[in-house]
Specification:
The protein is of the alpha/beta class. It has two domains: 162 residues, Rossmann fold, CATH 3.40.50.720; 123 residues, Orthogonal Bundle (N-(1-d-carboxylethyl)-l-norvaline Dehydrogenase, domain 2). It is built from twelve helices and nine strands. The strands form two sheets. A six-stranded parallel sheet has the order 3-2-1-4-5-6. The chain has a three-stranded mixed sheet with strand order 7-8-9. The longest helix is centred in the middle third of the chain and has 30 residues. It is elongated. The mean pLDDT is 96. It binds nicotinamide-adenine-dinucleotide. The site of nicotinamide-adenine-dinucleotide has 25 residues, from helix 4 and helix 6.
Length: 296
Amino acid sequence: MNIAFIGLGNMGGKMAQNLLKAGHTVYGFDLSPTAIQEFQTAGGVVSTNPQDAAKHADVVITMLPAAKHVKDVYLGDTGILAVLPEGGLCIDSSTIDPQTIKDIAEVGKSKNIQVCDAPVSGGTVGAQAGTLTFMVGTDEDTFNKAKNILSHMGKNIVHCGDVGAGQIAKICNNLILGISMVAVAEGMALGAKLGIDPEALAGVVNSSSGRCWSSDVCNPWPNISENAPASRGYQGGFATQLMLKDLGLAIEAAGQVKQPILLGGLVQQLYQQRCLQGHAQLDFSSIIQNYLPDEA
Ligand code: NAD
């Protein structure tokens, strides 16, 4: 299959490599020369703009930082919807607000082009290993077409509902994650301050009712969870600034339907403070340093 891939960064670069490994021809575009270089070395065909990539393609995949980049790539001066033939399929895997992808899908529909959302969970490790979870928003037929391609990059491809439903699932999951990480950080920091060995505390929590992904797989206390960012100086995980972005999306979406998300608002401020303190690139579990800066 001929696939256009726009956005070859930390996630997209690795996802595109898995498509190349599966034998597809991939036409790639990114604004970053480093990302382009890595893609070319892996066997990708470099394009000069999104339209140049899309005009060769049966399917377009986008993996971009935020909604403004996604809008630009689909609808801007060199936007792909202007050149993709009728019957084309576009899959946006960026994490953005549900309304933006619905708006873009409407434009696509008027040209007989299917646009769906398929944000991911699994991070850069999952992107490299081809084990991502995709949360897909679209109709049944488009889902089945998209699933064939996404299965080269992920192992769980979940149909969440109509366009936008994938983004809803993604931002609600990350709302829970952002809150649960702060809860675990508070519990671990309090325990340490009160004098319990953090390893003993984590052992109890992980076999008790406080257990969650943040306590078990990604405990914020160093050297509790094997392979957790906390055990390597909070490097190479899910950046605090990306968690801040996702909580902002949850707050924006909650505002649109007037739904209170009280803890979401509070932890968003905590991650915002971390970013202002210069820790935007560290894994979000480094939030524990605000509770016990000398120990964690
Ligand atoms: P990234 O910043 O590493 O990559 C984004 C790439 O898009 C960059 O290489 C950038 O140059 C390129 N880009 C920006 N504007 C462009 C344009 N107009 N045309 C072409 N390329 C353009 O980000 P990432 O970590 O790969 O994340 C991408 C998306 O995936 C984000 O929405 C993020 O929230 C989401 N996500 C990231 C992770 C993670 O662990 N990194 C996990 C799940 C979801």
